[in-house]
Design a protein that fits this description.
single chain; alpha+beta; 74 residues
């Protein structure tokens, strides 16, 4: 079975934040958002972390829904 790779990205003030993750690494990515938001050296706020976290959770829900739909139709 192949694993899908998801991408979330943000461009802010000319900086690019691009994150790739799969289902197993999503919890670690959410923690990384918190670490980035807490780092005063980065132009990455708690709001940015919240927005990207919400998108990760949406992607997870969509993947779960499509997997469930596929299993039911098989």
């Amino acid at each position: 079975m192949s694993r899908s790779v998801n991408v979330v990205a943000m461009v802010k003030d000319g900086e690019r934040f691009v994150f790739l993750f799969d289902a197993e690494s999503a919890p670690q990515l959410l923690q990384t958002f918190g670490h980035y938001a807490a780092d005063p050296e980065l132009n990455f706020t708690w709001y940015d972390a919240a927005v990207l976290s919400q998108r990760v959770r949406q992607l997870q829900a969509e993947a779960k829904k499509s997997t469930t739909s596929f299993r039911r139709s098989a």
